């Protein structure tokens, strides 16, 4: 799959073309026991269904499923997976900035999102495999729900997030880019790409758990419609499955929140050009402006 001695393409370039961070090139199943991997599968499914479950509720849930697990163990596994319950105030998780990292204020309070490329966001989720797991980052246009880029990695370093951002920026740029305060998104490599292009950086603050809710809805959709159904055996299957799914998601999957149009139809004429997009608006009417949420919204993907 990757040719170390390729005469034209470097290993780095080959990985980027395959949406695979270099850490994934040397993927080995993590050193977790089979029992812990099964617990992580159950935690992932439970969190996708009930993201408000904290450590104690998760431990109780696992107990009802026949797994007597203490709170300490559940907490460790949830931290490894990057899961945090949706509380009025954020818990520690993937959204913890690195030591000395510069954070930015939240810029989207009461902002109406009325056009493509006005607001983009990035987020990371856990992708289970039969004998391990990966992390997935995706960059999303808020107005259209269009997935602009995505990358898989076996570790939570910043590199795979930077790669996804570079790919998205190769085709355009937003006015505002929103993330949580995770170390990947507060890294100099990530924020530097935004600052040099004059893109305003917005970061979710503590106590504002619904600021990135469009990404959370994307993850729920991807897992129910793709990941849980396919049960990937390895990173190769995950990459191929997600590539096919995101193509379907962008170009063919109608969204109720978009008057049953696709993200591609909404994102600047990606489906058939600007005239088709204009015609679709004429028939279906101009979409209602989205307001950046600070409370749970009722509109789904």
Structure, described:
The chain is of the alpha/beta class and 301 residues long. The chain folds into two domains: 11-81, no CATH class; 112-291, Ribonuclease H-like superfamily/Ribonuclease H (Nucleotidyltransferase, domain 5, 2-Layer Sandwich), CATH 3.30.420.10. Helix content is 41%, strand content 13%. The chain is built from twelve helices and seven strands. It has a five-stranded mixed sheet, with helices on both faces. Helix 4 packs across helix 5 (71-81) and helix 9 (213-230) crosses helix 10. The longest helix has 18 residues, at 213-230. It is globular, with a radius of gyration of 19 Å. It starts with 10 loop residues before the first helix and ends in a 10-residue tail after the last strand.
């Amino acid at each position: 799959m990757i040719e170390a001695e390729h005469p034209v393409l470097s290993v780095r370039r080959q990985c980027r073309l395959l949406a695979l961070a270099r850490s994934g090139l040397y993927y080995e199943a993590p050193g977790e026991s089979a029992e812990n991997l099964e617990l992580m599968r159950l935690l992932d499914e439970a969190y996708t269904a009930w993201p408000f479950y904290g450590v104690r509720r998760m431990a109780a849930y696992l107990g009802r499923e026949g797994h007597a697990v203490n709170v300490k163990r559940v907490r460790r596994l949830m931290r490894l997976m990057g899961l945090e319950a949706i509380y009025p105030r954020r818990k520690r998780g993937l959204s913890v900035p690195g030591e000395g990292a510069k954070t930015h204020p939240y810029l989207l309070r009461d902002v109406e999102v009325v056009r493509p490329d006005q607001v983009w966001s990035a987020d990371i989720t856990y992708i289970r495999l039969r004998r391990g797991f990966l992390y997935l980052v995706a960059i999303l246009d808020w107005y259209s729900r269009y997935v602009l880029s995505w990358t898989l990695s076996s570790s939570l370093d910043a590199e795979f997030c930077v790669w996804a951002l570079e790919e998205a920026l190769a085709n355009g740029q937003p006015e505002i880019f929103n993330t949580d305060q995770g170390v990947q998104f507060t890294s100099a490599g990530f924020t530097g790409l935004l600052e040099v292009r004059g893109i305003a950086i917005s970061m979710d603050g503590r106590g504002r758990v619904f600021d990135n809710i469009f990404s959370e809805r994307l993850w729920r959709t991807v897992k129910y419609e793709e990941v849980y159904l396919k049960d990937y055996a390895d990173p190769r299957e995950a990459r191929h499955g997600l590539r096919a799914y995101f193509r379907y998601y962008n170009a063919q999957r109608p969204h109720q929140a978009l008057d049953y149009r696709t993200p591609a139809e909404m994102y600047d004429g990606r489906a058939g050009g600007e005239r088709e997009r204009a015609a679709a608006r004429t028939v279906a009417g101009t979409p209602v402006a989205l307001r950046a949420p600070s409370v749970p919204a009722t509109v789904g993907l």
